[in-house]
Amino acid sequence: MLKKFLCGSFIFLLAPLTVAAPNVAVDIAPAHSLVAQVMAGVGKPDLIIRPGASPHSYTMRPSEAEALSRADVVFYISKDLTPWIETPLENLAVSAKKVVLLEVKGITLHEFREGTTFEGHDHHDDEHGDKDKDGHHDDEHKQKNENDHHDAYSKKEGHEDEHAEKDDHGNYDEHHHGEHDPHAWLDPENAKIWLQAIATELSRVDAANAAAYQRNATTAIKKMDTLIADIRAQTKKLHGINFIVFHDAYQYFERRFDVQATGAISIGDASDPSPARVKEIRDTVARLNVRCVFTEPQFNPGMVRSVFENTKVSTIGVMDPLGADIKPGERQYHKLLKALVSSIVQCQN
């Protein structure tokens, strides 16, 4: 009897222990896709903001609030993208490790572009910083960047908020944001840095699965390099395309792949353009012979059509920074970027 007990105990000790994966919550689908790639084979992260909804203002479902409350780690872009998220993070994810992706060291950050049209924002001729390996002047956009010129201008007497537009009654409709444009996930070089940062953070919380996280991150980064090469091969064939986007959310993608939007209809994805902005956009369409305009699935395309009524615009397509129609999961991020370049290619065709 004793012999049988000892034998069984020995077998028990040799059996592999099942280590439960940490509970992980992520704010938007593209970031969720990156975390899912790192966690592949270990666990699955929870998505907080459902596809198709605006991250700027959102009311969580009970299931999403529950996912946040049980999270061991929360990855989110920043409060600049989701200003409402700070309160639930404080109240629900009390003990969770909170990782702000926009604060990860080494990523490329861009300030918001000013104005309705972007012709004056030639990213090939930035005044500061050296070119990176892809030929972009990105040093001035790195983490901990000084923005003294922008801050000084904003504080000068007589200069209102540069991201505020007057409505028909002369009141300002402010597009609140922080120092940088938060749509940084649309630069896949940033995504590569995030993949490694995600693996590092998960390894700290879950050391037992650290090897799997690091292995998955390495694989995902290699796949990201392939994606970047494929997109660059497509964008090199694009020449002289003038297109208008719904709101200025795409400059990270534009700068990385040298395809620049001509302007944006709306100052923010939740605000209608003022009459002055509509006039400037229409004038730009006529002057530059713009043929393509892109709306977003979250918003009424009828408004976009009304802006360009009786103009030369012949194509009203869809361009989406979040991938509202793409199923969340490991492949979401790759499909999202492929959809962006596909929209621009269709414009040229």
Oligomer: single chain
Low-confidence runs (pLDDT<50, min 5 residues)?
9-17, 121-176
Let me know the CATH homologous superfamily of the domain at 24-102 and 185-229: Nitrogenase molybdenum iron protein domain
Helical content stands at 25-40%
What is the structural class? alpha/beta
Instruction: Give the distance, in angstroms, between the N- and C-terminal Cα atoms.
Output: 80 Å
Q: Compute the number of helices.
A: 11
Mean pLDDT, all residues = 80
- Overall CATH class of the domain at 24-102 and 185-229: Alpha Beta
Second CATH tier, the architecture of the domain at 24-102 and 185-229: 3-Layer(aba) Sandwich
Q: Could you spell the SSE succession in H and E letters? A: HEHEHEHEHEEHHEHEHEHEH
